[in-house]
Amino acid sequence: MVTLIGPFCAISSLTVAVANLPAEITHLYEEVQAKDNQIQELKSGIQQRDGSIQKFIKLNGSLVENPKEAGYSKTIMANYEKAQILQEEKIGLVDKAAALVCHW
């Protein structure tokens, strides 16, 4: 059984969907911005720990073992992995926003 909707219902439904489009896109881009801020914090942590490793090498030479290097290296790699995941999530959000715009 096929149900037909009247022209008024179709236009009303379309109007509501299109009227909400700017708010949806704004929300998606706010999420992208929040994820970008998280990535910047991770990059800052990476740079800080890498700077500490480089400073130790500069002061003590590369032959002296840095007792904190292993921990710093693990943290740096974990931050890179988290940043990669956040970046992929950002791409998904932007793709979703593009699909919304292209749909209407």
Question: Tally the helices: what do you get?
Answer: 2
Q: What is the number of domains?
A: 1
Radius of gyration: 24 Å
- Which class of secondary structure composition applies to the elements? mainly alpha
Distance between the termini: 28 Å
Q: What is the average per-residue confidence, as pLDDT, rounded to a whole number? A: 89
Query: What is the global morphology?
Result: rod-shaped
The percent range for helix content is: over 70%
- Poorly predicted segments: none
The biggest beta sheet is recorded as: none
Please, could you describe this protein's structure?
With 104 residues, this protein is an all-alpha fold. The chain has one domain. The chain is built from two helices and no strands.
Please name the defining characteristics of this protein:
104 residues; 0% strand; mainly alpha; rod-shaped
Provide the fold topology.
Layout: H1 7-60, H2 69-103
In short:
The chain has 104 residues and is an all-alpha fold. Helix content is 86%, strand content 0%.
